[in-house]
Amino acid sequence: MKRFTKLCILLSFILFSVILLSLMLGTTPISISDILTYILNGTTGNHSMDLLLAKMRATRTLGALLAGMGISLAGILMQSYFRNPLADPYLMGASSGAMLGVVVYGLLTLVMTSTIGTSSFGIVLFAYAGTMLVMMLITAIAKITRQISTLLISGIMVSALASGFTSILVYTGDILGGDGEKLHGLISWGMGAVNNLYWNQVGAMALIIVPFMIFSVIALSKNMDANVLGDNYAVSIGINLKTFKRKLLIISSILTATVVAFTGPIAFIGMFCPILARMINKSAKHNELIPLSLLLGPIFLTIADILTRPGVVLPENANALPLLCPLSIMGAPIAIYMYTKSKNFTM
Predict the structure, then answer these.
(1) What residues pair up with 310 in beta bridges, in sequence order?
(2) Signal peptide span per the entry (predicted)?
(3) How far apart are CA 300 and CA 247, in angstroms?
(4) Which of 97, 139, 218, 232 satisfies CB 3.0 to 4.6 Å to 130 for a cystine?
(5) Does residue 76 contact residue 269 with C-beta atoms inside 8 Å?
């Protein structure tokens, strides 16, 4: 049996186990037997537990699953675009751009005396606009310099710039009063969370993310393999580089904006899951790399979500941690290691 097949089976088992743990753990533990009873009969026999499973545990678990897949795929596409294993939607500023767009939307609805966040379409649309704006700026910088260090620093600085404008808009909302407190709440949301998702938001994420997952595996993976070998080789086998790279940029931006619009920025998943997939599979073929990353992303993000919950690691009376905390602890050391080894690392 091929290494790739064995890894898919193993990671699928781990993902299933993590999903089960996500449904079980929290301030109110739920047993496996209760979960199975609910799946088979539509109820556990306890109304409060039914609501907890249906309205909270299931939505945050599926949200983590979809967000992990979306941001992992966005990371692969971004790494292929820049031919840089350290390219990541969070580090390169795409997530900060999406967040800026969401805050702009919130401020506009506040000024127009509308309720913030009533339109998921509006939130996603402004997130797209913010992401595309940042990615256009990063792309322009990439055309000027090919150095990994310069590109990464530029991404971090653009991210800081977007975050600065976001903070200004948030405090402007506070000055305006009224629902400005809701806008200020985006500061904590800006560190990532999947615990406040509704079923319609989970459905919207699935409607956008799943088709792009299938399209990327079927239509982009071979061209991504060729792109890694350089422009000359890609052109020699008939790839229209301008069109191909535009697809990579647009799809990665859409995926990032979709995830950020509903969960806030998700740090490091888009970077270290593709890297880990390459390392464990010992192959950089994208028709294998993409499926493995789509399994690793949800595993790490769901584990991170479990660790943020009161009653798991934290005391039951504590406030939930943002996802940025465990994700940074997992991702930052990998980023440092990969940066020091980047000259020897191949895509």
Answers:
(1) 314
(2) none
(3) 27
(4) 97
(5) no
- pLDDT digit string, tens, across residues 7-32: 999 999 999 999 999 999 998 999 99
d(CA 217, CA 213): 6
Angle, helix 269-281 to helix 324-340, in steps of 10 degrees = 50
Tokens matching residue 319? 């406030």
- pLDDT digit string (tens) for 86-103? 788 888 888 889 888 888
Q: Give the angle subtended at the CA of 296 by the CAs of 27 and 123, to the nearest 5°.
A: 70
| Residue 314, phi then psi, degrees to nearest 5 | -80, 160
> 304 lies in which domain range?
82-344
In total, how many domains does the chain have?
1
Higher pLDDT, 338 or 122: 122
Q: Could you tell me the CATH number of the domain that includes residue 259? A: 1.10.3470.10
How many other CB atoms are found less than 10 A from the CB of residue 331? Answer: 23
pTM of the model: 0.89
DSSP 344: G
Q: Is 140 exposed, middle or buried (0-12, 13-18, 19+ CB in 10 A)?
A: exposed
Q: Are 171 and 110 in contact (CB under 8 A)?
A: no
Express each pLDDT in 237-264 by its tens digit.
Answer: 889 988 998 899 899 989 999 998 889 8
Band of the pLDDT at 324, cuts 50, 70, 90? confident
Spatial distance between the Cα atoms of 271 and 274, rounded to a whole number of angstroms: 6
Count how many residues are written for the chain: 347
Q: How far apart are CA 140 and CA 128, in angstroms?
A: 18
